[in-house]
Specification:
Structural class: alpha+beta
Largest sheet: 8 strands, mixed
Oligomer: single chain
Distance between the termini: 43 Å
Number of helices: 12
Shape: globular
Radius of gyration: 25 Å
């Protein structure tokens, strides 16, 4: 995949406002039609309205011959566009009939550029979670929970709603919708397993189904299994367990043998890089052998894409960039086709695999939908943020430097808008990514959480490090943080800061640090290890790994990161040594704590715990809780508040 045609954002002197940041429309979920002619995608935007963002469905010619046009009016949450096998109709989910409850809709494309007439296909009480149009053109596979019974409705009406743990979350089941009759049939052979993904063999054969033993992330992600479902009989063949965080099952054929591949954490590990795992399903019974197709690779797979007439395509995080690979069916190794600067995501391929569509972002171009041949140039189709071209942005530079032990590292530096290195030193804010299995790619990011350019337009230099534990550098690089969070990743970050101070970019007396989720943990950890930082922002961060293992959604993974659990005995515990709460007495840095009230990934108690410890030791801090928010911020007013509050905090202390 050659690089997309460059369309950079010219510099200007217009002011970047918080409203512009939060109201920016973003393209999501591209889907190319099986015949390769059209690309559908979603556009998510606040549009200046209060509450949560809405989304609409758009369509564009893959060759750019006609301009994109909107198929739905954007007054509801219209999402997940997927094509019928004959490319004549588009399916999507929408909550237009009942806010918060998605139902399946269909649009028959007539070639006009008017907002299309949609046809509701389901009225499933409780809504539809996902959908997969099948090859026969007559059936859509649905993922949906059970409809409430009369007893369920009575209990809800009377407040008789005690939750029995282990049965408090609804199981999502596989169901088959007959488009001609509207009848929905449930596949009973999967029992009470929670279905998370489905894909059909390209020749119209069985469905590959990925399921968990329970809807809870812990232990759900550790109990994943693969199954085959025969459409004619609904008979189920269990293929057995698959790895931690398994996802993206797909089929491919070589010499008449069908293979089934998926992504999962490298076998034998709870913490580490994703790998591509492959098997040949037997005629009966469970899988005998699974093979890791990415062992030893320095790049990390991020997406797998099924191609009907050939081996699968895959995207790989490769340092600061993203590469397109194709599997060689002879060697069973992935071979790189091309590498693009920044980020590629949401890859989708036509039936033949000859035409692709993907979300692309570079340092100077925000994320947009691009399409083109697998071996040719990509053409930008969407343009959801033209207003950004009137802003003067900070120059984003690539960094390459060494950790104290000699390991080569990368990262990014955003200079203050309109300034050059020679005009330094500048106040520097280090923004640590979440995960930890994530990365800062050389892309353009602008949101309430990833607000590097927001700070750069206010005069700050921003350092975006990629320490150990992240993606893009192979399994060993990612796995080293298991039981040792805050170790090598902290010294990796510090080495980058020291480099920028030595080069005259960063003012050593005006250093700040910020992060969300695992980045919030690292911000809290940093100020307990050093007094160099004059201000810190801890967003949805972990302060106590033992508490996190016991109460967070990802309990078992968080235990693997923190190193132990509270039920391992009376201690001393590894997680205490690795927790910021244990080092609060050393903190002298003013801290801004931001947290969603309904966060179950990193529960609010983590922030309350840290707040009380800071209060006990008399540390200057501000604690802000956002009602109705989970692990991120979605409501417009909250996004505005966070942007303004973060900038004001650094203005006050730096």
């Amino acid at each position: 995949m050659p690089r997309p045609e460059p369309r950079s954002i010219p510099e200007s002197t217009d002011l970047l406002t918080a409203e512009l940041v939060v109201d920016l429309a973003a393209p999501v979920a591209p889907a190319i039609s099986p015949d390769g002619r059209l690309v559908a995608y979603g556009v998510v935007a606040n549009s200046g309205r209060p509450g949560r963002p809405h989304s609409s469905v758009w369509v564009a010619a893959a060759d750019g011959s006609t301009a994109p046009h909107r198929l739905t009016d954007g007054t509801a949450s219209d999402a997940a566009p997927r094509w019928a096998p004959d490319s004549a109709a588009l399916f999507f989910t929408s909550d237009r009939e009942e806010r918060g409850t998605a139902q399946l809709q269909r649009i028959l494309l007539d070639g006009s550029k008017n907002v299309a007439r949609t046809e509701p296909l389901t009225r499933w009480r409780g809504g539809i979670c996902d959908h997969y149009p099948l090859a026969d053109g007559r059936t859509v596979a649905l993922l949906a929970g059970d409809e409430p019974t009369a007893e369920d409705e009575r209990r809800e009406a009377e407040g008789d709603d005690a939750k029995v743990w282990g049965r408090h979350l609804p199981v999502t089941r596989l169901r088959l919708l007959d488009l001609a009759t509207g009848v929905v049939r449930t596949v009973d052979g999967l029992g009470d397993r929670h279905v998370v993904e489905v894909t059909q063999r390209p020749d119209g054969g069985p469905l590959a189904v990925l399921s968990w033993a329970t809807p809870e992330l812990d232990p759900g992600v550790t109990t994943a299994g693969l199954h085959l479902v025969a459409l004619e009989t609904a008979a189920v063949q269990d293929l057995g367990p698959v790895g931690f965080e398994a996802r993206s099952p797909l089929w491919w054929n070589h010499d008449g043998a069908w293979h089934l591949a998926h992504l999962a954490v490298t076998p034998g590990h709870l913490v580490g890089a994703l790998a591509v795992i492959d098997t040949v399903p037997p005629a009966t019974g469970p899988t005998v052998e699974q093979r890791n197709l990415t062992v030893g690779m320095s790049a990390c797979p991020t997406e797998l894409v099924q191609v009907a007439d050939g081996p699968p395509l895959a995207l790989f995080a490769d340092g600061l960039d993203t590469a397109l690979y194709r599997l060689d069916p002879q060697s069973l190794r992935f071979h790189r086709l091309s590498c693009a600067p920044g980020t590629l995501a949401g890859l989708t391929a036509s039936h033949s695999g000859e035409t692709l569509a993907v979300l692309t972002s570079t340092a100077r171009e925000p994320r947009n939908v691009h399409a083109g041949p697998a071996g040719g140039p990509l053409l930008r189709l969407s343009d959801t943020g033209p207003e950004l071209r009137g802003i003067r942005w900070g120059v984003q530079e690539r960094l390459s430097y060494q950790a104290p032990d000699g390991l080569q590292l990368d990262g990014l530096l955003i200079l203050p808008a309109g300034r050059t290195r020679d005009e330094g030193p500048f106040p520097l804010v280090t923004m640590v990514h979440g995960g930890p299995y994530f990365r800062h790619a050389d892309e353009f990011t602008l949101s309430a959480v990833d607000c590097g350019q927001w700070l750069a337009t206010a005069g700050y230099a921003v350092f975006l490090p990629n320490p150990r534990g992240g993606s893009g550098h192979g399994h060993e690089f990612a796995a080293v943080v298991a039981g040792a969070v805050g170790g090598d990743e902290w010294t990796d970050i510090l080495a980058g800061i020291d480099l920028l101070v030595a080069e005259g970019v960063a003012d050593p007396e005006r250093l700040g640090i910020s992060g969300w989720s695992h980045g919030g943990f690292m911000a809290a950890w940093a100020i307990g290890r050093s007094e160099r930082f004059k201000a810190a922002v801890m967003g949805a961060g972990i302060s106590d790994w033992g508490m996190q293992a016991g109460t967070g959604d990802w309990g078992i993974m968080d235990a693997a990161l923190g190193g132990s659990t509270g039920w391992n005995g009376p201690g001393p515990h590894v997680h205490d040594r690795n927790s910021p709460i244990s080092h609060v007495s050393r903190i002298r840095t003013p801290v801004l704590i931001l947290h969603g009230e309904e966060d179950t990934n990193v529960p609010l108690g983590q922030a309350v715990h840290f707040h009380r410890a800071l209060r006990h030791f008399g540390v200057e801090h501000e604690f802000v809780v956002y009602p109705r928010e989970g692990h991120g911020l979605h409501e417009r007013a909250h996004q505005l508040d966070a942007l303004r509050r973060i900038r004001a905090w650094f203005e006050r202390w730096l």
